[in-house]
Amino acid sequence: MAKPTKPTKPPKPEELVKIDYNPPEKPWMEVPVEFKPGTFCYGTRPKYLEEVGFPNPREWSPLDEDWKLPADWKDTVLDGLGERLKKNRAFHLFMDICVRCGACADKCHFFIGSGDPKNMPVLRAELMRSVYRKYFSTGGKLFGSLAGARELTFDVFKEWWYYFYQCTECRRCSVFCPYGIDTAEITMMARELFNLLGCNTDWIAGPVANCYRKGNHLGLEPHTITSNIEFMLDDIEEITGIKIEPTFNRKGAEILFVTPSGDLFGDPGTYTCMGYLMLFHELGLDYTWSTYASEGGNFGFFTSMEMAKRLNYKIYAEAKRLGVKWILGGECGHMWRVVHQYMDTWNGPADFLEEPVSPITGTKFENAKTTKMVHIAEFTADLIKHGKLKLDPSRNDHLKVTYHDSCNTSRGMGILEEPRYIINNSCNHFHEMPEDTIREKTFCCGSGTGLNAGENMELRMRGGLPRANAVKHVRDKHGVNMLANICAIDRATLSALMQYWVPDVEVSGIHELLGNALVMKGEKERETDLRLEPLPGKEEEDV
Amino acid sequence: MGALLSFFVVIVLVLLALAGVKGAGLYVLFGTIIPYAAFATFILGVILRVIKWSRSPVPFHIPTTCGQEKSLPWIKYSKLESPAGTMGVIGRMALEVLLFRSLFRNLKSEQRDDGAKLVYGSNKWLWLGGIAFHWSMLIVIIRHLRFFTHPVPFFVNIIDSLDGFLQIGAPHLMITGVVLLLAVTYLFLRRAFIPQVRYISLPADYLPLFLIMGIATSGILMRYFLKVDIIHVKELTLGLATLNPKIPAGIGVIFYIHLFLISTLFAYFPFSKLMHMGGVFLSPTRNLANNSRMKRHVNPWNYPVKVHTYEEYEDQFREKMKDAGIPVEKE
Hints:
The structure holds two protein chains of two kinds. By secondary structure, chain A is mainly alpha-helical.
């Protein structure tokens, strides 16, 4: 086996921005794929596939001549493609109706950051459409390349692999497409096909296997979850003087709380998690954590719909076992795409739960009445609106905040106002990034859908360029130093992105900001924020 | 390459009609048989294609949300960009189909200051070209109903007089005919000259443009310059519409060229990207309400999957759970 490429350092920012947007002379079908170091992920180790019963586990690398595919790999791909056309109207339609108007071209963060024409959403889709035409359309069968059709070869398969792991399913192109063609749908199908042949990436397959067996992507075992939260509780006690005692796997609690495991491990996610813990304590909320359903996110969603459903199963199953009334979900991007648009369809109906009602305000969350899962930003915004929280936004006066809409929560859910409402009530200094880079037009962090590995750092920095550039704009204009968001992947990946492009900006979840501002009953005078950094006006006392 | 090839195809089509009618006198073939065959192919082809799409179910509820969801009562939600109910979806689809809402959003991204700055500017040319093209096409088609009806319906007459309100020349200049030709020329030019768009273009992208250019040009030539005998033309077209086809003598060959290009476009339609006309109505990212937590969406092929149950999990971690003080089912 060829050795996987070592994690290569991306070139310097001033080098990276020299982007050539001119397409090459040769027609794209004649330009062979080139696996450039720093722009792709390692192939998965066999053990991860074995743990979830996926086909073709073996040692392999994308740089190998031979990917050790089964002899009939081509039939597998074509049969798989045909099956998916029959099972999914969106996919079928999106293979047929594109007029190649090019409106999507410069909407993709990977195209903007790389200039590679195959990163234009239209061309990314054409990589697959060309094969679709050859085998599934009359015109393609008759006229071949004149009709834009081409054979499926191993080189084409590799090209698919390279470019469908350069799409973060962010759906920005689908906002601008006059027919709503969503490249995410095409990427999802491509990745399902790769997984029929054991060609997942290591960075996706690992968390999937972890989540399946241990309950969360990070592979945190039950006692590690409790001890990680213990650490946070110690910090909270140090900051506020209040001792919090959350419960785990408790039967009969009113609410099950599920958040991405990223919040339990590593900053700045843990600060957000401290915010949740403080809020729930202050409310006296009757809720429980679960170590079994300890993952809101779903890397299965980047693997196949079936794998996503297998992982997602635990949330309802645990809610049923514990006998809770409804489920509250933490800050996470793709988790909420899944919860909002897929969970009920896969694993519902959740008829053993009740329509969610806030025990504090009595608000009925009618928008969640069948799925029975409420977004924490909806929950908290409702609390603030009803005056149930005492907030001192001046504790965030050292922060000049901007807000990054995550792809999935903006374009696959539409939760735009609640987070802003919470920030505006928790902070005095809030500045929006330029209009064309937020809300439904927000730019991806460049590392979603499991592309947040280490070995593809150049790709991530390129893909994150448009987002970072908009942050830089408000940093220069307003002195912004904090990039808030409601996504665990963002909290991890934007930190790296900021270090590279806009080094003096830090990253936080909105419940960290809320935790800072939250005036708790019986708390001591706060000297520091949740990062244990001195509050404004307290710097000297700290020294 | 693709452009030249498509252009060549359209030239060949023109020559075919010319040779067929003028040379070989195949009036019945070009005046009756081909138009009928093309129309039948169009109707059948479109229906079959839509049936084929409809047979694939919509397993998941995947609207692209382009605005605030309906959530808390005091938060204003975006009824048209993130509709929660049927009326909103109808509104969103109407905006999309009639006004090209999504294309209206179009932006152009550009690097400034040696790449230090990315800026986004409004870029509505494609929208303008697209909307000018589609609307003038629609009006031209409605105007042409006058050739297939007797008496001519009132709305056709109204549209006719509105379209010719400038009252230039005789017969009056129809604005939409000119706009159609200009718009389709713009769509061709941007495809030929914007490097990225040229790079993604297939012969199948140029062919309909040249066909429509040919149709519009032959129509304009016929109306204003090579004037054909309009009474006889109507005799022929009304004959087609009433299934009583006849071939009146003395209609200029330009008419048969016009008709043959239209027939080609009709016959080609169901097999081409032009099917976006039908497809846009079926697009699940646009035609579903953003209400998937309020109303369960059922996937007809949902099937049981292998899962890792709580019991298996507890068996795996029971001792560790007990040590950490986490309650277990079996001691």
